[in-house]
Amino acid sequence: MKKIYWTSFNSKIGTIYVASSDRGVCKISIPAQGKKELLSWIQRHCNGAEIAEVISKNKQIIDELNRYFDRKLVRFHSRLDPIGTGFQKEVWTQLRRIRYGTTITYKDLAKRVGVPGAFQTVGRANGANPLPIVIPCHRVIGSNDSLVGYGAGIKTKEFLLRLEGALLI
Fold it and tell me: Which domains does the chain have, with CATH numbers?
């Protein structure tokens, strides 16, 4: 039986919930989502998994996230276990290639995935990202440089981009 280990911690953007399988981090719920949403996501995506609150299984990702918020980490090293379709995983792979402190547009992301006309489909895959911040979906912006589409809200997206130096105004 698959086991999922979850916990929460306080960060500079509020309470973050993290969950890991034995293979790696599978879910990060940023402050717009709470414990209820995290546990619901686990139940929907990890059929029949045993769920336990275990801080030690998430210590590395918590440490990395805290170092990221303190501007001491630009690349995450925790093992990941993202749950999604093949297409979603390809989009998430491309997201991980966006360098810290930079942004690209949804149109650019669609080109990188090999479906240049499908930026809305790519946007939906981006929105389904179970590992925000670590898989940096916040680095994708609108074609007119607008801050659009972020599950934790535009203010959080703006905070993350400013933290990375991608937004200077």
Answer: 3-69 (3.30.160.70), 86-164 (1.10.10.10)
Exposed e or buried b per residue across 90-118, where buried means at least 16 C-beta atoms within 10 angstroms of its C-beta:
bbbebbeebeeeebbbbbbbbbbbeeeeb
Q: Is the dihedral of CA 82, 86, 92, 94 positive or negative?
A: positive
Q: Which of 7, 14, 47, 53 is nearest to 30 (CA)?
A: 14
Amino acid at 148: V
- Point out the residues that are catalytic: 137
Q: What radius of gyration do the chain's Cα atoms show?
A: 15
- What's the pLDDT tens digit per position in 70-89? 999 999 999 999 999 999 99
Question: Which pTM was predicted?
Answer: 0.93
